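Dear support,

I submitted the protein below through the web form. The confirmation email said the job was done, but the results page showed an empty box. After a refresh the structure appeared. I'm attaching both so you can tell me whether what I see now is the final result or a partial one.
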Amino acid sequence: MALAERRYRPQVRDEYEEARQIGVTAVPTFVAEGYAIVGAQPYEVFHRLMQAVGQRPREGSGGGSA
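What the results page shows now:
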């Protein structure tokens, strides 16, 4: 329904444009405090990102399958 009605078209267009402006060229891309992780990455990469931006990773998050 939402696709046929184009209900969210303005929001999608705005989000797309913002992503393009900050250099997102692939999905998934994770952006935090000026750092970007592109593509599927292991837990350790996200852990390093969180350390770089001064956030503490959640305890018990070790990258294993749920």
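Response: this is the final, complete result; the empty box was a page-load delay. The CA atoms of residues 2 and 8 lie 7 Å apart.
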